């Protein structure tokens, strides 16, 4: 019975989407262009280097090397092997869905067990600093100081989620086998041995390693681009058909309980589907206080949005990693992020903005968000060239493989 209901729901949703696109072709096209521009200018060129580097680190044994070094830190804190430090570092630096992508690759290489991978995916998918400082703080709120507050709350909440997820299936003895545990010597020596052993046991030509890294990264990014365009269109169509207004009316009742303006309902709903549009709409809401706006933006950043969650689900579908722990991590992330904003809003933002210039040390006048803004502008200008060039390289690699 449940499977029949699910089939009907899937068919109804697909039919609704098809009819809506036919009914609003111009608006659908504009939404598609918006999603395509976001992927072409920002997402592809910013994520591609991290994806390729992650593949090369795994192929050359660097993940094994770092894993041995970080084992004493990652295992007690997060109950994952040291290789999880690579996932955590690159996931938080490059933004979602990098954590899921790298965790899935490590699982495919048996560096992680299923449970360890599920723990990692739950807390290593976060927004990158470029988006928080450049797009949200400067672009939407026009206040660089907000970026510091949002970033501290966002990444601290990630760590707290990781500390909670260490207890996930803690009674299951399924730790990955450490091939170097019986090797005598210093930790650094065992790490070097792990690197060399992995490299010699995977002796593939350098050209093949580079080609596979590029193609794997391009395939993942093309999938991500498809989801971005799809949810950009879906979000627009829900608004045009009035579905968003119906759902937003229910959210308005919840907001009134917390004495918040009902104008925040539609931006919050948009953020549930797609983070960028939601954060922009929340920042442009006139009748809301800045405190409420920062709380809601932090909440949708923690939730990741259904667009990114769909990307993660698609990446995890190629492995035995379950989606449920990741989703539980999103709910925990929301709780921690909101609580941290409530606690830190006054000391990290209000009190800092109330300081007069004479009270601020000379060396703190430097605008540390400038690098993020410059990087965002650079990606907007040169991102499409990088994207098109990389796709051409991928096409040439495929062409060479099909005609040896």
TrEMBL record:
Domain Nucleoside transporter/FeoB GTPase Gate: 43-136
Pfam families referenced in this protein's UniProt entry, alphabetically: Gate
Classification via InterPro entries: Gate_dom, Spore_IM_YlbJ
Residues annotated as transmembrane: 6-24, 36-60, 80-99, 120-141, 147-168, 288-306, 327-349, 382-399
Record keywords: Membrane, Transmembrane, Transmembrane helix
Keyword Membrane part of the UniProt annotation: yes
Domain of life according to the entry: Bacteria
Designated name of the protein: Sporulation integral membrane protein YlbJ
Organism of this sequence: Alkalibacillus haloalkaliphilus
